[in-house]
Write a structure and sequence with these properties.
It is built from seven helices and ten strands. The protein has 222 residues and is of the alpha+beta class. The chain has a single domain (48-208), classed as Sulfite Reductase Hemoprotein, domain 1. It has a five-stranded mixed sheet with strand order 3-4-5-6-9. Mean pLDDT is 88; it is low at 212-222.
Length: 222
C-alpha cells in the first residue's frame, strides 16, 4: 500500500516470514532506506516531492530529482536529524502538497522555486508565501540558493523556538512578515530577500503579523 505521504506499507506478513522479509529489503544491493551507503536521515525520511520534470509534462522544473540533492546539501550542513519536512513540487498544481510541510517549495520555472512557510503535516495549516502586504518575496529562488534559505530558516527556528514548537508553528507565530524580516537580517539570505515582485495574489493581511505567543494569549486572558 502506498500512502498519501509516499510511504510504502507492507501488511499481512506472517510472523514466521518477518525476518526473511526484513533481510530481503535490507539487502545492500537494493539500497532500500539508504543513500550513498548511509541510512536515511530524519530530514530525508520526512521529506518528499512530486515527480516533476522530465516525467510530468505539466511541470516547470524538476522536483523528485532535486530533493535528494537538496537533502544531501543540508545533511552536509548538519541538519540531517532535524525532525522537520521539506516538500517540493514542480509547478503550482502542487501534487505533493508542499504547503503541508514545514518548508514548501513550488516550481515557478526552470530551476526556480517559490517558498511557502507555516504548514503542518496534519493539514490543519497550509503554508503560504512570504509577503509584506504589497509584494511577494522568495517567489523565484534559484535552485542553488534553496539550501541557503532552508538553512537560514532552520537556524532561526532552532535558536528561538518555544518548548514543543515545531518549525511550522514557529513560522506561523512570526507570520510571513516576521519570517521575511528575519531573512532580510540574515547576511546569507538578504540579497534574495531584496527581490520582491508584484503578484496575482497576496495572502490575507490577518496572516501577515503572525499568531499570538502562549505568553501573549495568557496575558490577554488575565
Amino acid at each position: 500500500m502506498i500512502t498519501p505521504n509516499q510511504d510504502l506499507v507492507f501488511a499481512n506478513i506472517e510472523p514466521a516470514a518477518k525476518k526473511d522479509f526484513e533481510a530481503f529489503i535490507g539487502d545492500a544491493k537494493y539500497s532500500y532506506g539508504t543513500r550513498h551507503g548511509k541510512k536515511y536521515s530524519t530530514l530525508r525520511t520526512l521529506s518528499g516531492a512530486c515527480v516533476g520534470l522530465p516525467t510530468c509534462r505539466l511541470s516547470y522544473t524538476d522536483s523528485e530529482q532535486f530533493l535528494p540533492e537538496l537533502v544531501d546539501e543540508l545533511e552536509a550542513m548538519g541538519y540531517g536529524e532535524i525532525a522537520e519536512s521539506i516538500g517540493i513540487t514542480g509547478c503550482e498544481r502542487q501534487c505533493f502538497r508542499p504547503g503541508t510541510k514545514s518548508i514548501g517549495w513550488v516550481g515557478q520555472g526552470p530551476n526556480m522555486y517559490m517558498l511557502k512557510i507555516g504548514g503542518d503535516e496534519g493539514a490543519r495549516h497550509q503554508g503560504i508565501p512570504l509577503s509584506d502586504g504589497e509584494k511577494l518575496y522568495f517567489r523565484q529562488v534559484k535552485r542553488n540558493e534553496v539550501a541557503t534559505v532552508c538553512a537560514a530558516l532552520f537556524d532561526d527556528y532552532l535558536a528561538n523556538k518555544q518548548d514543543g514548537e515545531d518549525l511550522g508553528a514557529y513560522n506561523r507565530r512570526l507570520g510571513p512578515l516576521g519570517v521575511l524580516n528575519k531573512l532580510r537580517e540574515n547576511p546569507k539570505t538578504a540579497p534574495i530577500a531584496a527581490k520582491g515582485a508584484p503578484a496575482p495574489f497576496i495572502p490575507e493581511s490577518k496572516f501577515l503579523g503572525g499568531t499570538p505567543t502562549v505568553a501573549d494569549a495568557a496575558a490577554a486572558n488575565a
